[in-house]
Amino acid sequence: MKKQINPSIKAHLIRGAFYLLLLLAVCAIPFTLAQRNAFKRPVTVKLPGTVPRVSSAMRGRSPVAKMAARLLHPLIPNSVYMIDDGTAEDAVAWGNGLQNDEALWFNQFEVIAGQTMISTVSVAWGTPVFPDPAMDGTPVTIGIWSDPNGDGDPSDGVLLGSVAGTIQNSGTDTFIDYTFSPPVDVSAFTSFFVGDMTPMNNGPEHFFQGIDEDSTLHRQSWLAAMSSGGPVDINNIGNNDTIGLIDDFGIPGNWLIRADTGGGASPTPTSTGTPSATPTATAAACSWSGGSDLPQAGARFVGVFFAANGK
Q1: Above pLDDT 90, what percent of the chain?
Q2: pTM over 0.85
């Protein structure tokens, strides 16, 4: 004879299975919502078969400086495009550990209606955590690039305008203004990029680019360079073989690079760069590829310079 399951036990089993299914459904809801609400960005790293090594160390900053920066933030006009809080906790370099190689550093911004004539780009160089006055006087090129399809990906970015200038007041959280005359018009786009090109040298390596790491991470700060250490293509960002968000190189943060359409962009003393010719070119197509996670011979490095504040 077939043994019958006790009706009471059967009821318990059915009830238990129901509770298990209910628990799984409840656990799945937050995951589903997170997936639906996740901030989507395009593929972010284009590499030539080698991943630059990132070096980092613990760092710290005075809470007084952070508080002062946040108090000043609301005083900045709405005409200023910015994603930083005014303080650089770290500074970043592109090179082989002994010298710098040419690199492009830039932020992506969504166009604000009525604020489309970019007259000034402002950059705060280095970090007060470990100032390097030897950087002052270094020649740099400041650029504004288009984002033709508005997807936030710079691989099709084309140079709209540039000015030549020098690094000044490095390591002081002072924004240096570089003026475009005439201003660069971005009204034809929904997104654009602003930033700078830093030069190669024969050493020692300098950590040019200040980065804000203790405010909201926007994933809008990019690096573009050549893995060989050779000259970058400033006209067509996609012609460089290493392109990525700095976050994806293991250094999450926001460049201290801003754009202004109304003048008076910075709450700190500034100086002005010298205008230069404005080259333009047609964007070239490029492909995205991954790479090994181990440095290889001849690989260039993203270096980050950190130091803890003394008490």
Answers
A1: 56
A2: no
